[in-house]
Amino acid sequence: MKFATRAIRMGQPPDPATGAIVAPIYQTVNFVFEDIGRPRAYEYSRSANPTRSALEECLAGLEEAKFGLAFGSGMAAADAVLSLLRPGDHVVSSRHIYGGTFRIFEKVYVPRGATFTYVEGTRPEAFAEAMRPATRLLWIETPANPLLQLVDVAAVAAVARRSGARLVADNTFASPFFQRPLTQGADVVLHSTTKYIGGHSDVIGGAVVVNDPELHSQIKFYQNAVGAVPGPQDCWLTLRGLKTLAVRMRQHEANARAVAAFLNRHPKVQETIYPGLPGHPQHELAKAQMDGFGGIVTFRLPGGREQAARFVKGLNLFLFAESLGGVESLVCHPATMSHASMSAAEREALGITEGTLRLSVGIEDADDLIQDLDTALRGC
Hints:
Elements: H1 3-9, E1 33-35, E2 38-39, H2 50-62, E3 67-71, H3 74-82, E4 90-94, H4 99-109, E5 115-119, H5 124-130, E6 135-141, H6 153-163, E7 166-170, H7 175-178, E8 188-192, E9 206-210, H8 213-226, H9 232-242, H10 245-264, E10 271-273, H11 283-289, E11 296-300, H12 304-313, E12 319-320, E13 330-332, H13 344-350, E14 356-360, H14 366-378
Parallel strand pairs: 4-5, 4-6, 6-7, 7-8, 12-13
Antiparallel strand pairs: 1-2, 3-9, 8-9, 10-11, 11-14, 13-14
Helix pairs in contact: 1-2, 2-9, 3-4, 5-6, 10-14
């Protein structure tokens, strides 16, 4: 089956009890046992739930993976992967990552005895240079939040294999429609399903997908032990979002291309960052390892926070809000939102200036979105 078909059908056969076409919401805590020590298919919804199982199977299928695990948030998913670490273990991470990921690294896992080295993710050799005997994980985010740097997944996967470490790839920005890192050598793929997978800004969730049975068993044990799982209603909403992932991502990208081209030639814009622009330094890599360029466009205004604030106030259709990946267009100020957990010096070192703005381009009419941006730019 091709992607759009898998998104609608995998893990979601007609309900055997009723013939219902849509997977039911199994809004239950517990399940009847056949006998002492003999549960039926399910025991307790923290451990597993049929609605969650449908979502996990569908997510695995879309990432071309054997196993999928759903979590209550993207950060819960990240925590489950990081639970593989033990005191003294070392992680090499791209320095271009979501601010919440940096926060859990530094504020949660460093106090537990893990160490982290941050490298320039656009240079695969930087990962090799930072490897230590204690390195257990390599962590990448591609495209990265918010400046859309790309990591050569296959090249970094080769570094991981040579050292016996595992490569974790956050695939949230691309979604499995545009990129499937497991097929390029990653060991773990991570998602905030809140974003493009859910796609409607109405449900928080996360996911981990893997191929290795032992790795799946370890992370699933943690999932059950800690219990950071989505409820059946959240799983059902995410499944509903997945059904339209293919058509939504096509439109997100088409609109993002138009918006990026407009911003790239606007005299008030200092710099436009989008992998689909030929001037993006990793445009060729994007073409090679992705099936499209995504729906995020980042740009800089030369006037810093004051000009950014005037621009945001001048918008009508683009909504000033956290998150991304929904059908509606959003604008984010990373310095005070997605990366606020970093210090000003850390943000500046990454290139996240006060004049940096990240657009999550929705699926409204592209002409209307461009007109909204033009009006706001003229007024700032």
